[in-house]
Amino acid sequence: MSAMNGSNSSVDTVSESWVPPVLQFLFGVVGNSAALLILVCNSPTHKWSPFYRLVGGLALTDGAGILFLYPPILARYATNFTFHFTNSVCAYTSFLASFTIISSALIVCAMSIDRCLAIYFPFCYKNGNGDKLRGTTLILVIWVTGTVVSGFQLMGLGSVYKFYPGSWCFFNFISVNTLDHVNSLIYSGLGLIVLLLTVLLNVLVILATLHNKHPGHFSRVRKDVYNIAFLSVIVVLSCICWTPLMVR
């Protein structure tokens, strides 16, 4: 593992606004904290079903990732770019950024799978007390998967690159080195497959909901529509934010 500078000029001469990273940090931490608070306050209603456990896992993953990722980034801006990332700090931020991205994508996909199973296979989906265990186990499996995939760069499969303005690091996806290329293909391949599967599942769920016109199930349909609308917003935003990086 190695850390390199992505700028051709001295990083001490960099002049960039501190507003974007500060807003990203505030919106990320406050927004995800608010989401967790709402989930906890409404727990008597949703009873922590698998879908809502996954929503909580998404908020926790994204919020904690931003909370622990941004301090060195903000320190770089606060010191007018005189604070330099060491190799260890660069490896830390690179791992955390890649872990947060891929784990969040996997959780969103799991949420789509959950909705698809609930609508197409409602009898098989309900499993009593096993619901809570299924949701928790799935989140743990996703975290382990995210750790392994994001840890390749630290285990010799690829390297870490410090990007302009020296305030963020990621695995080296611009190198022509074979190991870097393999690591990039593994990460982006998994990311794109997950995103495509998520979109496909949501389309299937939306079609099934639109065809469900039984008046006796109005309350269930309304709840499904709410969950699908919520999930669709997340999917659209995820595709907009992650697809360019995965393709690159």
Q: Mind explaining what this structure looks like?
A:
- A hairpin with a 4-residue loop joins strand 2 (160-163) and strand 3.
- With 248 residues, the chain is mostly helical.
- The chain has helices at 19-41, 43-46, 50-78, 87-120, 122-125, 130-151, 178-211, 218-247, and strands at residues 3-5, 160-163, 168-171.
- The two termini are 21 Å apart.
- Mean pLDDT is 86; it is low at 7-11.
- The protein is 73% helix and 4% strand.
- Strands 1-2-3 form a three-stranded mixed beta sheet.
- The chain has eight helices and three strands; from the N terminus they run E-H-H-H-H-H-H-E-E-H-H.
Draw up the topology in text.
Blueprint: E1 3-5, H1 19-41, H2 43-46, H3 50-78, H4 87-120, H5 122-125, H6 130-151, E2 160-163, E3 168-171, H7 178-211, H8 218-247
Helix pairs in contact: 1-3, 3-4, 3-6, 4-6, 4-7, 4-8, 7-8
Tell me the total number of β-strands: 3
Kindly provide the radius of gyration, computed on alpha-carbon positions and rounded to a whole number of angstroms: 20 Å
Can you count the helices?
8
Mean pLDDT: 86
Short description:
With 248 residues, the chain is mainly α. 73% of the residues lie in helices and 4% in strands. β2 and β3 form a beta hairpin.
